[in-house]
Fold each of these.
Amino acid sequence: MTLSVIVMQLMARRISRLSVATVGRSGWRRSVPARASRLEDAQAPILWFRADDRLGPLMASPREDAAPRSGSATPLLMTVIGLYLRRIGGRISTADLVALAQYAAVSEPLARTSIARLKKRGVLVPDASNGSAGYRLSVGVERIFERGDRRIFHVHRMESDDAWCVISFSIPESQRAVRGLLRRRLVSIGAGLISPALWICPDHLRCEVEQILTELDVRSHAVLFTTSRPRVAGSLSDAVAHWWDLPRLAALHRQFAESATRILDRVEPAGVPAFRGYVIGIDAWRVVSYLDPGLPYDLLPPDWPGRRAEMLFATLSALLAEPAWEFVADTVGIEVDVSRRLTGRIPTSLSADC
């Protein structure tokens, strides 16, 4: 079993609560499990990666504590690692990692516990190459982080004439568990449910769908169709409201907007405040970026809160990304060329194929 599949399985239980349909005698209907009705349970992969990558997800017997919620110690530490470990060269001392976690509002005991968890999960590997205890990313994890970069930092919003991807699959009853897992993982990347074995998403997510099918070894059981604007009985906006849980997505956008507004209103763009505000802001945005597929605005309610959330994310990045990086560089002893400051944290990996 590959590292990405093992790590991805860690999110199975949380992602399973994102189930959007149940079956009854009269056919398929929308249904949200009782626990999933709470906003905090409607979260995407809590780690840096997509649900299908790491948290993105699954394992034979996933544990509840393997999928901490956004804002708790382990996901905050993962956000710190995802933002900075590659940028500082791939290796960090234990003391510096604990210090950064504390600056991000994680206590020292919880930081050390979270580091131990990530080591156990195979995300971090001990490294004493510089004469001090430290960690580096395990083989293969960096590529997974790069995939997550594209989802978090690149807000891809469909235009009205953009293509769609329709996913049709027929998985044998003998692979029922895999079938259920596939549905959960499609939810985790923002796909919509047309019927139990027919799903839809923007075509810009097609490569993520392909990766899920391949990693679950069910590619031969599925067919992907690239199509223009779907033709339905009634309005397409009504169909979209049936295929996706728009009220929940709207609630996630509002939640992020409230968090980002608090950060921007109170944080000075320098030092610890900039670092802490940026990490907390990115940690909150991950949830939105994984579950929102980027549907075109003309198919969404006119007061869609995603517009404001995306604007706030851009503002937060432009204001805090570089001051936060400069603080990290100073903390770990790396010289920063301030003459080459960026206006936001846009990873170079965004240009890579997903």
Amino acid sequence: MLFDEAEHPRGQGGQFAKKEAHEMTRAEHGQEQESLKITTAALNKKSNALEKAKMEEWMNLEEDDRFGPVGTAIKEKYQSQIEAITDQAAPLWKRQKELAHPKNTVLDLANTHRRHVEVALAAGKHVPPEVLADYPDLDPGDKFQPDAYDKKTDSLEAYNDKTRDQKGNIIPAVITVYEDRSFTFITKLPPVSAIIKKTLGLKIASQKPGRETAGSLTMDQARDIAAQKLADLNTDSLDSALKTVMGTARSMGIKVI
């Protein structure tokens, strides 16, 4: 995106007006979110209180009455009130989702414009001073260094260096990116399904598990895979890990013998 005075006029209706609209939208956005949060919390509290009262009144009945006309009447009495609250809250929940994921708003456009400025600076393009004036935290001297915006490439190269000796395997990674755009990452072992296929020399699993068999995995092989993946699973038990491996194998149409 090129930046010149024709594309980014100053004054009324231009860059200043766009920025003021952005700031006003941000404030209104926050106010509406807070108002909806308070209202929906009150409705949820009221609905939960009715649910509790319904259950207490129903439990106080004799066992024969709970499942008879009396118990049904109690449930219907409270249920109509709960449904009325749900109907009242439904549009508010929908609006909360819209505010949490804004689309095509002035706020989005302002953020997109800033990103265009950042990319232009990183690419070494000229950005007029009057455009940069709206983003005082952007330093043209620093941003002219493309490497400052090359973190994606840096992370990919670091990942490739760490996994070079595991070429051909699927190696999941968990990447943490910090505010200063630095990052750290950890690699994990391939998924259980990938290890099973490699162990059995399979290219694909069964397309119809339960009806077609793709191969057989011995208990010793399954136990070895479980031991390998134990550190990546949410368990410290080898038996639990083994059950995970066996379940994955069956879902692939592979018998465990």
Amino acid sequence: MAHVHRVSGIALAIFLPVHFWVLGDALQLDSFLAWSEQPLVKLGEWAIVLALAAAFFYVQLKHPFSHLWRAAAKLDIPQLANPEVRAAAADADELLIDFYARHRLRFALSCLCYLIAWSMGPIEILIYLTLLHQPLTWMTPVLVEALGLLVERVTFLIPGKLVSQEGGKALILSSLGYPAAIGFAIGLLRRIKELTWVLMGLLGLTIHRMITERTTYADAPPRPNLIKMHSAHEGEIS
């Protein structure tokens, strides 16, 4: 197992520079922007997005976890043949179906919240560039965020977006005529922000658990005293 980790680490170290070099060579932003302004291209983009969303929604209603379990069970791995794993996959499928059937309002609100959070990405890039005293137009933050998401999706196998976030931002901004150091700085600032939110979430979860456990313990009925002290005269026949 240790040899596998060493080989994977070496492969990752070789892959990252080659990946960013190829991506940088492929980014012909001027011609790409001119091509993307065509009406048929915009229509095709919307069609692809809607088709992917509909396909993803359709797959979730067709017991995807059970299908994945059946496919994985064919690999002849004893851990996957466990009936508990099969039951867990079936429970996950039922939870998805029940959620979409009974909680449609929550589903719509969650999509809306995610859309709002996702749309804050360009505003965040705008704030960073402004604080770093860099000239920009309204298109620059949108383009940086969109291409940054593309880089993150391509390198999704890298744990914690290690290097890909900072290197991706440096590559994109240098392609737009900015210093590469600005891209690294923006990637680092975004990572610090993410770590701050994670720590705040863990702190809130810890406090919530402590309060919940304390409340549960306080509301629990008192346990009967199993040790009964007998007097010296108890049990004597008068």
